Amino acid sequence: MPIKSFEDLFIEELSDIYSAEKQLTKALPKVAKAASNEDLKKAVSDHLEETENQVKRIEKIVKEENLTLKRKKCAAMEGLISEADEAISSIEQGPLLDVALIMGAQKVEHYEISAYGSLIELAKLLGYDAAVDLLDETLGEEKGADSKLNDIAVSGVNEDAQEMRASL
Questions:
Q1: CA 151 to chain centre
Q2: How does DSSP assign the chain, residue by residue?
Q3: Which listed residue, of 91, 111, 129, 160, carries a Cα 20 to 30 Å from 65's Cα?
């Protein structure tokens, strides 16, 4: 079905991020298991719970605004998850893999930050005030997750990987 209106575009993009979040709920446990840094494991596990709540928020938006999501698979998230799977299978568990996992997770967060920011603007144009609030809550969580990942990287994971490299 062609996109001809702001509402069509909103539904298309909401369907896309819904798929992305659903894919993440399946991928994050594997990432947490692959991580060796305890702070990273906890951050990924905590974000899984947030992601499950984000899925519920999208479902609430759909119900409150009487929308019907499209059945689609977010190709961007599929690619980002594939990159994480590749890192997990090609890098030995330890600090270097942790660095790669953080990089991959931050790519995911930046994608989501962009998607939610755009959805908020479309929701404002459409007068979906409740959706704006719910999407903004999720956007805040995504920004927080990105910041937490950055803190974990600079507070030890990057140094651990550098020390490992120096000892080789």
A1: 17
A2: ----SHHHHHHHHHHHHHHHHHHHHHHHHHHHHH--SHHHHHHHHHHHHHHHHHHHHHHHHHHHTT--------HHHHHHHHHHHHHHHHS-TTHHHHHHHHHHHHHHHHHHHHHHHHHHHHHHHHT-HHHHHHHHHHHHHHHHHHHHHHHHIIIIIHHHHHHHHHH-
A3: 111
In a domain, 168, yes or no: no
pLDDT tens readout for residues 15-59: 999 999 999 999 999 999 999 999 999 999 999 999 999 999 999
Q: Domain with 82 in it: what CATH number?
A: 1.20.1260.10
Go through 107-123 and write b for each residue having 16 or more CB atoms within 10 A of its CB, e for each that does not. bbbebbbebbeebbebb
Q: How many domains does the chain have?
A: 1
Asked, for residue 155, whether it belongs to a domain, the answer is yes
Distance CA 164, CA 137 (A): 39
Which pLDDT band holds residue 163 (cuts at 50, 70, 90)?
Answer: low
